[in-house]
Protein backbone atom coordinates (compact mmCIF):
# COMPACT_ATOMS: atom_id res chain seq x y z
CA UNK A 1 0.00 0.00 0.00
CA UNK A 2 2.49 2.74 0.59
CA UNK A 3 5.22 2.72 3.15
CA UNK A 4 5.08 1.13 6.57
CA UNK A 5 7.65 2.57 8.94
CA UNK A 6 8.95 0.50 11.80
CA UNK A 7 7.52 -2.91 11.00
CA UNK A 8 8.53 -5.24 13.81
CA UNK A 9 7.26 -7.89 16.20
CA UNK A 10 7.07 -5.70 19.25
CA UNK A 11 3.70 -4.03 19.69
CA UNK A 12 2.36 -1.06 21.60
CA UNK A 13 -1.08 -0.55 23.13
CA UNK A 14 -3.56 1.64 21.24
CA UNK A 15 -6.45 3.57 22.73
CA UNK A 16 -9.32 2.52 20.52
CA UNK A 17 -12.55 4.31 21.25
CA UNK A 18 -14.92 3.40 18.43
CA UNK A 19 -18.54 3.05 17.43
CA UNK A 20 -20.10 -0.15 16.16
CA UNK A 21 -22.88 -0.30 13.58
CA UNK A 22 -24.61 -3.41 12.37
CA UNK A 23 -25.77 -3.54 8.76
CA UNK A 24 -28.76 -5.30 7.28
CA UNK A 25 -26.66 -8.31 6.31
CA UNK A 26 -25.48 -8.73 9.90
CA UNK A 27 -21.99 -7.43 9.10
CA UNK A 28 -20.60 -5.11 11.73
CA UNK A 29 -19.06 -1.81 10.69
CA UNK A 30 -16.67 0.30 12.71
CA UNK A 31 -16.65 4.02 12.10
CA UNK A 32 -15.13 7.18 13.56
CA UNK A 33 -15.45 10.83 12.58
CA UNK A 34 -14.39 14.28 13.73
CA UNK A 35 -17.07 16.94 13.26
CA UNK A 36 -16.01 20.24 11.70
CA UNK A 37 -18.21 23.35 11.54
CA UNK A 38 -19.92 23.71 8.18
CA UNK A 39 -18.53 26.65 6.20
CA UNK A 40 -20.33 26.90 2.87
CA UNK A 41 -18.08 27.80 -0.02
CA UNK A 42 -14.85 27.53 1.98
CA UNK A 43 -12.11 28.12 -0.64
CA UNK A 44 -9.53 25.88 1.04
CA UNK A 45 -11.71 22.97 2.09
CA UNK A 46 -12.50 20.52 -0.73
CA UNK A 47 -14.21 17.33 0.48
CA UNK A 48 -12.79 13.98 -0.62
CA UNK A 49 -13.50 10.31 -0.04
CA UNK A 50 -11.65 7.13 -0.87
CA UNK A 51 -10.85 3.51 -0.16
CA UNK A 52 -7.59 3.57 1.76
CA UNK A 53 -6.98 -0.19 1.83
CA UNK A 54 -8.60 -3.60 2.11
CA UNK A 55 -8.66 -5.64 5.31
CA UNK A 56 -8.06 -9.39 5.57
CA UNK A 57 -6.85 -9.30 1.95
CA UNK A 58 -3.24 -9.66 0.76
CA UNK A 59 -1.83 -6.65 -1.07
CA UNK A 60 -1.25 -6.95 -4.82
CA UNK A 61 2.40 -6.09 -4.34
CA UNK A 62 4.77 -5.37 -1.48
CA UNK A 63 4.52 -1.89 0.06
CA UNK A 64 7.76 -0.06 0.69
CA UNK A 65 9.11 -0.86 4.13
CA UNK A 66 7.86 -4.47 3.99
CA UNK A 67 11.16 -5.90 2.71
CA UNK A 68 9.58 -7.31 -0.42
CA UNK A 69 6.70 -9.02 1.38
CA UNK A 70 3.06 -8.60 0.43
CA UNK A 71 1.02 -7.75 3.51
CA UNK A 72 -2.39 -8.41 5.06
CA UNK A 73 -3.88 -5.92 7.47
CA UNK A 74 -6.30 -7.81 9.70
CA UNK A 75 -9.77 -6.43 10.29
CA UNK A 76 -9.19 -6.43 14.04
CA UNK A 77 -6.01 -4.39 13.62
CA UNK A 78 -7.70 -1.94 11.25
CA UNK A 79 -10.63 -1.39 13.62
CA UNK A 80 -8.33 -0.86 16.60
CA UNK A 81 -6.26 1.64 14.60
CA UNK A 82 -9.20 3.76 13.37
CA UNK A 83 -8.68 6.41 16.09
CA UNK A 84 -5.11 6.93 14.90
CA UNK A 85 -6.40 7.99 11.46
CA UNK A 86 -8.34 10.95 12.84
CA UNK A 87 -6.61 14.23 12.04
CA UNK A 88 -3.82 12.59 10.06
CA UNK A 89 -2.68 14.23 6.84
CA UNK A 90 -2.92 13.08 3.25
CA UNK A 91 0.06 13.81 1.04
CA UNK A 92 1.12 13.43 -2.57
CA UNK A 93 4.33 13.15 -4.55
CA UNK A 94 5.21 14.70 -7.88
CA UNK A 95 4.53 12.00 -10.46
CA UNK A 96 1.74 10.51 -8.32
CA UNK A 97 3.77 7.33 -7.77
CA UNK A 98 4.50 7.32 -4.04
CA UNK A 99 4.61 9.21 -0.76
CA UNK A 100 6.01 12.58 0.29
CA UNK A 101 5.17 13.21 3.93
CA UNK A 102 6.25 16.85 3.60
CA UNK A 103 3.68 17.56 0.91
CA UNK A 104 0.66 17.47 3.22
CA UNK A 105 -2.31 18.55 1.14
CA UNK A 106 -5.30 17.59 3.27
CA UNK A 107 -6.68 16.03 6.43
CA UNK A 108 -8.63 12.88 7.29
CA UNK A 109 -11.76 13.49 9.36
CA UNK A 110 -13.64 10.18 9.06
CA UNK A 111 -12.81 6.50 8.69
CA UNK A 112 -14.85 3.32 8.50
CA UNK A 113 -14.27 -0.40 8.14
CA UNK A 114 -17.17 -1.72 6.08
CA UNK A 115 -16.80 -5.30 4.89
CA UNK A 116 -13.33 -5.58 3.39
CA UNK A 117 -12.94 -1.87 2.72
CA UNK A 118 -11.34 0.71 4.97
CA UNK A 119 -12.77 3.97 3.68
CA UNK A 120 -11.74 7.50 4.63
CA UNK A 121 -13.07 10.99 4.05
CA UNK A 122 -11.81 14.48 4.75
CA UNK A 123 -10.74 17.72 3.12
CA UNK A 124 -8.07 18.76 0.66
CA UNK A 125 -6.42 22.18 0.95
CA UNK A 126 -7.57 23.21 -2.51
CA UNK A 127 -6.48 26.84 -2.33
CA UNK A 128 -3.02 25.95 -1.07
CA UNK A 129 -2.49 23.25 -3.71
CA UNK A 130 -4.32 24.40 -6.88
CA UNK A 131 -2.11 22.21 -9.09
CA UNK A 132 -3.15 19.13 -7.13
CA UNK A 133 -6.86 19.88 -7.46
CA UNK A 134 -6.49 20.45 -11.20
CA UNK A 135 -4.65 17.16 -11.63
CA UNK A 136 -7.17 15.12 -9.68
CA UNK A 137 -10.24 16.85 -11.10
CA UNK A 138 -9.46 16.81 -14.81
CA UNK A 139 -5.87 15.81 -15.43
CA UNK A 140 -6.23 12.05 -15.05
CA UNK A 141 -8.60 9.40 -16.30
CA UNK A 142 -11.76 8.88 -14.25
CA UNK A 143 -11.11 6.34 -11.50
CA UNK A 144 -7.35 6.35 -11.99
CA UNK A 145 -6.49 7.69 -8.54
CA UNK A 146 -6.03 5.54 -5.45
CA UNK A 147 -4.64 5.74 -1.94
CA UNK A 148 -1.91 4.27 0.21
CA UNK A 149 -1.55 4.18 3.98
CA UNK A 150 1.42 5.12 6.14
CA UNK A 151 2.08 3.08 9.29
CA UNK A 152 4.27 3.02 12.35
CA UNK A 153 4.68 0.52 15.20
CA UNK A 154 3.30 -2.30 13.07
CA UNK A 155 3.30 -5.80 14.54
CA UNK A 156 3.99 -8.69 12.16
CA UNK A 157 2.67 -12.07 13.29
CA UNK A 158 5.45 -14.08 11.61
CA UNK A 159 8.28 -12.26 9.84
CA UNK A 160 9.36 -15.55 8.22
CA UNK A 161 6.04 -15.86 6.39
CA UNK A 162 5.89 -15.13 2.67
CA UNK A 163 2.94 -12.79 3.23
CA UNK A 164 3.22 -10.66 6.35
CA UNK A 165 0.11 -10.42 8.56
CA UNK A 166 -0.15 -7.11 10.39
CA UNK A 167 -1.99 -7.65 13.67
CA UNK A 168 -1.45 -4.19 15.13
CA UNK A 169 -0.38 -0.81 13.79
CA UNK A 170 -0.74 2.95 14.10
CA UNK A 171 -1.76 5.00 11.08
CA UNK A 172 0.42 8.08 10.60
CA UNK A 173 -1.07 9.35 7.34
CA UNK A 174 -2.00 8.46 3.79
CA UNK A 175 -0.99 9.30 0.25
CA UNK A 176 -2.93 10.04 -2.91
CA UNK A 177 -1.42 8.31 -5.92
CA UNK A 178 -2.22 6.46 -9.11
CA UNK A 179 -4.03 3.19 -8.38
CA UNK A 180 -1.54 1.28 -10.51
CA UNK A 181 1.28 2.47 -8.24
CA UNK A 182 -0.44 1.45 -4.99
CA UNK A 183 0.17 -1.86 -3.27
CA UNK A 184 -3.60 -2.39 -3.40
CA UNK A 185 -4.98 -1.72 -6.87
CA UNK A 186 -8.55 -1.74 -5.54
CA UNK A 187 -8.14 1.52 -3.66
CA UNK A 188 -9.84 4.68 -4.89
CA UNK A 189 -9.89 8.44 -4.44
CA UNK A 190 -12.23 11.18 -5.59
CA UNK A 191 -13.15 14.72 -4.69
CA UNK A 192 -16.74 15.47 -3.75
CA UNK A 193 -18.20 18.58 -5.27
CA UNK A 194 -21.51 20.04 -4.11
CA UNK A 195 -24.46 19.01 -6.23
CA UNK A 196 -26.18 22.02 -7.73
CA UNK A 197 -29.82 21.30 -8.44
CA UNK A 198 -31.24 22.55 -11.70
CA UNK A 199 -33.92 25.10 -11.00
CA UNK A 200 -36.68 25.85 -13.47
CA UNK A 201 -37.87 29.40 -13.72
CA UNK A 202 -41.65 29.56 -13.75
CA UNK A 203 -42.90 32.08 -16.25
CA UNK A 204 -46.48 33.28 -16.14
CA UNK A 205 -48.18 34.86 -19.06
Can you tell me about this structure?
It is a single chain. With 205 residues, the protein is mainly beta. The chain has two helices and eleven strands, in the order βββββαβββαβββ. It has helices at residues 75-85, 130-139; strands spanning 3-4, 19-22, 28-33, 46-54, 70-73, 89-91, 104-114, 117-124, 145-156, 163-178, 188-191. Strands 1, 2, 3, 4, 5, 6, 7, 8, 9, 10 and 11 form an eleven-stranded mixed beta sheet that branches. Strand 9 (145-156) and strand 10 form a beta hairpin.
Give me the secondary-structure topology.
Layout: E1 3-4, E2 19-22, E3 28-33, E4 46-54, E5 70-73, H1 75-85, E6 89-91, E7 104-114, E8 117-124, H2 130-139, E9 145-156, E10 163-178, E11 188-191
Parallel strand pairs: 1-9, 5-10, 6-10
Antiparallel strand pairs: 2-3, 3-7, 4-8, 4-11, 6-7, 7-8, 9-10
* Count of helical stretches: 2
Shape: globular
Low-confidence stretches: 3-27, 196-205
Query: Which radius of gyration do the C-alpha atoms yield?
Result: 18 Å
The fraction of residues assigned to DSSP E strands is 35-45%
Average of the residue pLDDT scores: 83
**Measured distance between first and last alpha carbons:** 62 Å
For the record, the CATH architecture stands as Alpha-Beta Barrel
Residues in helices, as a percent range: 10-25%
Amino acid sequence: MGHADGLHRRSFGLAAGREGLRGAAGLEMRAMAVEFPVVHGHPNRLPFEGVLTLVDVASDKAPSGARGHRVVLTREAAEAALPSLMGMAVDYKAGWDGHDARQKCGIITAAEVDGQKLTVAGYLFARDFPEMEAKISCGVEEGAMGMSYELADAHVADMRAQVWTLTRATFTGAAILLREKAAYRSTSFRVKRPVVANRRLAVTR
